[in-house]
Amino acid sequence: MFERHHFVAGKERVGTSGRFGPIFNPSTGKQIGQVSLAAKTEVEDVIAVAQAAFAEWSGTSVVKRARVLQNLVHILYREKDALAEALALEHGKVFSDAQGDVQRGLEVAEFAQGIPHLIKGEYSDNVSTGIDMYSMRKSLGVVAGITPFNFPAMIPLWKSCMAIACGNTYILKPSEKNPTVPLMLAKCWQEAGLPDGVFNVVNGDKEAVDTLCTDPRVKAVSFVGSTPIAQYVYATATANGKRCQAMGGAKNHMVIMPDADLEQVADALIGAAYGSAGERCMAISVAVPVGKAVADKLVAMLKPRVEALKIGHSMDASAELGPLVTADHHAKVSGYLDLAEQEGATIVVDGRNYECTEEGYEGGYYMGGSLYDNVTPDMRTYKEEIFGPTLQILRVETFEEAVNLPSIHEFGNGTSIYTRDGDTARAYVDQVEVGMVGINVPIPVPLAFHSFGGWKSSAFGDINQHGMEGVRFFTKTKTVTSRWPTGIRAGAEFVIPTLNS
């Protein structure tokens, strides 16, 4: 078994807490390693290292910072397959999906290369007689990212690239379930020319999280995970005077109008609901067909597609989805299917009893795709995030009912509508109370130059991830009012300056 520790001040640092968490290969169900879980004193030491590196890095010219990002982009392209293979081993997602994980993170690195333009302030000449005014964006200091198991490359890159480009020093606390890729990213940053101490990785559990959220030297915390933990992180960090963005769970709906192309819809739902074994915060987990005829036909089209899903280990090139991340999570998703039956949903396809028969992989955390119909809004299985390879069918009769479902749901991360009618699509976009919307697009994850973020219990804090929102989150504005002596003395001024001055 291998061991994973921390990356601090440009080198691996062996943990001293004596506490470890297990690392499993979800495809086999076997433990393959262990990760050191940092004590509070270890995290405090990492914060001190990042704080010491801040003055030099924040004073580095924005062009030099951009060149480090340029180098990083080239290295990530070179190492993309190696990162994806390590990611697939510890997460369980299939290799092609793991490549996409790395690619979407890499695209934020590409966007961050433009930091000389992105970070520009504003200038107003002669706002009053002889007075100029301008604003600038300044880095915050030490910032922390707390990232989830389901995207161990993409989300650390989303956060760290924007933070570091803006002149901050960065501490990453990744999921202890799959720590290898974040440590590999640290080596990529180092090779790109980033000074020691600017990007650090500390592995840990709640003790590490609490330290990052309470230590006064950490100026901002950016989190992605489940809603209960997002609420906790946001409350703890902000109570301790920090800027915080905390992205939580989701229950993403796809509305299917009677005029939609149902072949296109069925194909879109298969990828959006079951890809990555449903372990995506943007996965479509609820299909909302409008009208009985649409619902009946859609369920009939989905059933054979779900039954035909190819499930295999993460490096099986023919597999469409791999195992779930842990045995505990497998049990949780199975429990939701048990509950769906108890609540009166119709199980159309049952994936609970799927077994992998390939030699060496019999113990993996595999689950077949599940499809259940006749779901109602009062069911717990509808209200809560399942995070597995399941799709619920919730039937409605009108557009008004359809737009209301995601609008009043606790979560408000993403939604999609399939229709050929522009008026209907425009009305849906305007009315639905959700942060990200797709029109004939199943998973509306914005590209790097726009910003990612949900509403309601899907996000805490009012600044989103990456794009220009990322620049705003990782900087603070300083505004300067300037007047140079002209030889004219106006005497003492006792009133606040105005536009008439």
Summarize this entry quickly.
With 501 residues, this protein is an alpha/beta fold. The chain has helices at residues 40-58, 62-91, 95-112, 115-118, 154-165, 180-191, 206-214, 227-239, 262-274, 292-307, 327-343, 380-383, 399-408, 422-431, 467-473, and strands at 2-4, 6-8, 11-13, 20-25, 30-36, 123-128, 131-139, 142-146, 169-173, 199-201, 218-224, 243-247, 252-256, 284-289, 346-349, 370-373, 390-393, 411-412, 414-418, 436-439, 455-456, 459-460, 475-483. It has a seven-stranded mixed beta sheet with strand order 15-16-17-14-13-19-20, with helices on both faces. It has a six-stranded mixed beta sheet with strand order 10-9-8-11-12-22, sandwiched between helices. Strands 1-5-4 form a three-stranded mixed beta sheet, with helices on one face.
Topology of helices and strands:
Layout lengths: L1 E3 L1 E3 L2 E3 L6 E6 L4 E7 L3 H19 L3 H30 L3 H18 L2 H4 L4 E6 L2 E9 L2 E5 L7 H12 L3 E5 L6 H12 L7 E3 L4 H9 L3 E7 L2 H13 L3 E5 L4 E5 L5 H13 L9 E6 L2 H16 L19 H17 L2 E4 L20 E4 L6 H4 L6 E4 L5 H10 L2 E2 L1 E5 L3 H10 L4 E4 L15 E2 L2 E2 L6 H7 L1 E9 L18
Parallel strand pairs: 1-5, 8-9, 8-11, 9-10, 11-12, 13-14, 13-19, 14-17, 16-17, 19-20
Antiparallel strand pairs: 2-3, 4-5, 6-7, 7-23, 12-22, 15-16, 18-21
Helix pairs in contact: 1-7, 2-3, 2-6, 3-5, 7-8, 9-10
